[in-house]
What does this fold into?
Amino acid sequence: GTALILAFDRRLLWALGAAAQVMIIYTYFNLADQRVPDYEFWGVLIRMLQVVLTALLVYLAAAPSKRSHEEPMLDG
It folds into this structure.
């Protein structure tokens, strides 16, 4: 994870993380009819936490960058 953060823009990683969470949530509910029981308390609880995580990742990926405000501008 550290190597990825150093190698790539964090916004890209946050967007990819959000996309991965959406796929995991979708897969859990899509495959529910193949499990017994279909839904478990812990499984639904984890998915609710994943929704919060996904929202935070989307916010971080879409929020204005503070990096451009911290770097001094040089003329010429």
Observations:
- The CA atoms of residues 9 and 58 lie 14 Å apart.
- The first helix runs from residue 2 to 7.
